[in-house]
Amino acid sequence: MARTAEQLPVSLTVRPSAPALAPLIGALGYAEGRFAHSAELSLPTGGAQLLVNLDGDALGSSDRRTRGAALQGPYTGPAVIDPAQQRAVVWVAFRPAGAYPFLSVPVNALRDRLAGLDELWGTDGAVLRERLLEAMAAGGPQACLRELETVLLRRSERPLEPDPAVRLAAVLLDRGTPVGEVADRLGWTSRRLARRCAEQLGLPPKRYARVRRFQRLLGRVNAGSGEPDWAVLAAACGYHDQAHLIHEFRALAGITPTAYAPRSSLERNHVLLGG
């Protein structure tokens, strides 16, 4: 992990101030920065995000572009993104199943997709970026984030209450609990578990568990110093062996473990690609 970003972004990250949003949203924030590299990989986390590009009215890559406000569903592999779209961006990181109340479709309809908010929310989504720009001009990032919370509270399609069973399933899968054991703990059939996870988490349970295991691995890599011992990490994170870890790393990140060079240890899911 020798390379780091040329310039780390200026950022503001807060927890939701509205109590109704706290069970659904882990954090929301504003970040700005300028980067010399031309492309980077965004690695899968298993979660969904809302993104608003305040610098330009566009998001996405060459194969999929939207206007500047979009919802990114859970990805099962890496996405190539343009750092120029992160010069001034507002974001919302949803908790597991947290995006579900704000959608009229199941979350798995957005799997591996970036969907424009104009497509999902109609006029409300189409004007969100302008509303946030006005709030930013009037009161800065804090006012912008408060406005975003106001919009989210009004845009719910379902009750703002996470399904406790799906939330427990996500916690157990995140810990590495086998899928069959998770179904047993909930008193569900494996088919019901798969259906509910796809609907609300956006991924089937085995895929979600794989992505979360990968995130546990990245957490350990970025918490350590020096060169990672991949064999030790494989055992600690639940891989069969180092070869299994390497195979999964390639499948989920599109690169080998030794090629992994995050933007910073705090931005472990952004990997530099070029200058």
From TrEMBL:
GO terms for molecular function: DNA-binding transcription factor activity; sequence-specific DNA binding. InterPro entries: AraC_XylS_family_regulators (IPR050204), DUF6597 (IPR046532), HTH_AraC (IPR018060). Pfam families: DUF6597, HTH_18. Keywords: DNA-binding, Transcription, Transcription regulation. Residues 163-263 form the HTH araC/xylS-type domain. SMART domains: HTH_ARAC (SM00342). PANTHER family: BLL1074 PROTEIN, HTH-TYPE TRANSCRIPTIONAL ACTIVATOR RHAS-RELATED. This is AraC family transcriptional regulator. It comes from Streptomyces coeruleorubidus. The lineage of its organism: Bacteria, Bacillati, Actinomycetota, Actinomycetes, Kitasatosporales.
